[in-house]
Amino acid sequence: MAQDLPPGPIIIADRHLCAESKDFFNRILQKKKRRQFGLLESPMMAPHVAVETVQYKVFLSGKSGVGKTCLAARLAGLSTPSMHYETTGIETIVLYWPVKLRENGRVLFFRLQLWDCGENALRRFDHLLPSCKEQVDAVLFLFSFTDRTSFDDLPNQIARWSGPSDQLVKMVVGTKFDLFMHSDVTQREVRQFQETQGLPVLRTGGEVSDGLGDVAPFLNCLAERLWHQDCMAATLPSGPTHYREGALI
Fold this sequence. Notes:
This protein has helices at 22-26, 68-76, 119-124, 128-133, 148-152, 154-160, 187-197, 216-233; strands spanning 2-3, 29-30, 33-34, 52-61, 90-100, 107-117, 138-144, 169-175, 201-203. 27% of the residues lie in helices and 22% in strands.
């Protein structure tokens, strides 16, 4: 999985490669593969290790067929569907990702709940979009490099999630980047879009490996922006709201 933005200065990049962080990453693995977490499950650390958990709701937006379900599965370490199918309602996946803050060395577990809803279902049922928007923290806007219409539709997708009090983390994800021979979107157009919209564009594609390095750049980039947003919210009277009750696990 490739992306064009290096992790910023808030978190330590490539931490999954460090020996001292092995115990934390082992908590999200099972038999050397990603562990699947239910809604009420979380990584279990030794009693003397105190790790705070921050939780976020992330919605995946995009036209049908761009790869929303595949991206969610990829980030969570699940098997990606071999055939395309339209998501008939709302599907959620929970994943955990450990991060170490550069400033003070604190280790945090990011609990990311990924929400995926079929585009046709959103059009048919009016109650789905409000449910997806409720307490959402970030939106990933997806397009496929092999589908020109999905790229042209991005401004409409973004406008759907824009508002006067908008405090969302927004990122754009281009899928099927490995199929460059069939690409309908040029890199020049992507750069122009970034300059116009002011949003980062990440790229995904290719074979999925069992290792953490495949998803680390993506999840670090997302965690970086979510934590920065929380730091900004901490300056407001209401303060940040993403600490789980009983955050020491």
